[in-house]
Amino acid sequence: LIRGVGLAARMGMLGLLCAHFALTVAYLAPPSPLKARVQPLLDATVGTYFEQNWSLFAPSPRSSDVALLARPLTATEVADLSRRGLPQEGWYDLSGPLYTAFEGNRLSAYERLSRPQYRAILAYFAGDPSLAAWQESCARGDPTSCGIYEQRVDLGRARARELLTHISSAFYHDIARPGDTVTHVALRARDGVRILWSQRETSARTTRDIDLGVYPVDPSVRPAGLYRLLEGTR
Amino acid sequence: MTRWGWWGWLATAPRQRSGLRVLQGAIGAMLLFRMALEARYALYLWGPNGLGLGSTQPVLGPTLGGMADRLFTMDASTLAVVVVLVISALCLLLGWHTQWASVFALVAFSLIDARLPELIDRGDTAARLMLFYLLLTLPFRSAPAPSSVVVWIHNLGVLAIAMQAMTLYAIAGLMKAAGPEWYEGTALYYISQVESLSLPALRGIFRDPFVTTAASYFTVLYEALFPIAMLSRLRLTWIAVGVAFHVGIGVFLGIISFSIVMIAIDLFFLTDAEYAWIAIRARLGWTALRRRLVSLARRVPGPARAG
Lengths: 234, 307
What we know:
The structure holds two protein chains of two kinds.
Chain A: H1 2-28, H2 33-44, H3 46-49, E1 66-74, H4 75-79, H5 81-84, E2 92-93, H6 96-104, H7 110-125, H8 132-139, H9 143-175, E3 182-192, E4 207-216
Antiparallel strand pairs in A: 1-2, 1-3, 3-4
Chain B: H1 6-11, H2 17-38, H3 42-46, H4 57-70, H5 75-94, H6 98-115, H7 122-134, H8 149-177, H9 180-184, H10 187-192, H11 200-203, H12 209-224, H13 226-230, H14 235-252, H15 256-268, H16 272-299
Helix pairs in contact in B: 2-5, 2-7, 2-15, 5-6, 6-7, 7-8, 7-15, 8-12, 14-15
């Protein structure tokens, strides 16, 4: 009897392992009608306790850097926004100096420190790259995929706004001078336009700026201790 | 494989012990590397009123998750999490109390991951999953009774690590195969144009049609075929190529922590007999080298004495 129980326990453990990897593969598989049906189960198991995403530069690799620009605004400038729009002068590049510093020293944290900015910008526009499969399936006309995609984009965007508020406040507290009357920070993404393979010898990199909105300075957010170095990069 | 096939492989003796030790050490090294660079920004990243907005409550529930989240409401407890991670990483690297070290490293690493998930990369995800599966495995020098339950559980841990690694590679390869740039063979050119990642000296190389096409197709084929290679005679070739591939990623893209973990995952697939063979060869090579150096030193004339 003891031998039988031992054997059953061993088989049970092996069965659990197989079930775990069946769920993992289903979680990572491209959208399908079957996957849409079991999505709540996948989210509650692998998605919660063994979250993973292996879209390493896939399906489409990124081909340029996205930089976060910030412009501290006084209460007067905020009041004038509807009439005059965002100022053209006085923008700070929060990402470029991190990229340059990382290029100068690969054994540094600068690239990793730039990730929250980059990921927040991505989430603000289109959600996480892991949603690409749902987006494609939605574009092909599957309403279930559209529902899942839109729900996740909304969640990601709400979180991105919160993160951008923290990033911009941390930045401002770093560079604030006594007597400053800044109440908000305007944010902008500077996206490097992809140079197509066929134009690689003839085109030069251009950029386009996309406004991300105006965020109140949160006085409780801790200074970054990172952007004092950027004083000269305006 | 024994005469009982896969059942015997799982039941009789603990497998991949050297590979597991390499994996433990590499995860410890990766965590230490990360903390050496990031600890000075710990309060900005994870501390109270820092960038971190995440919570462990979706995983741990409101009670336990609430308690875990409270760790990040004070500077001292935030730094304590980092200290626990550093100590457990050091233990993993040096092979001290590796089971407890895996538990503490997993808890501390999961806490900071959940606090600011925007900071992590796929290497961190792989390390977190591997740390969990490492909990099932035996310490390096333990000697369990043959065919005991602990041997079975250890080998299930080994199997879990192998299956996770194969899933990781296969999914990464298949997702690339679905991307037009990978299909057209220009993907590596586009990645090389990301200035924050790629080395300036090597950007020009990927403008060459042969280099970018070969490298793009190689990446897709290597990853997608990894599970098949691990179960075939191509295993050793695939491991050697994988190590070189990830060294290249570390140097070219600068994603060093990711490369450390992936190299260890590749090396995990070497058997204990292969590690023993490598150890013997290394010892013989070292002895021969030492002998040659000694004989060279004897041949060099000493300084002439004056007078």
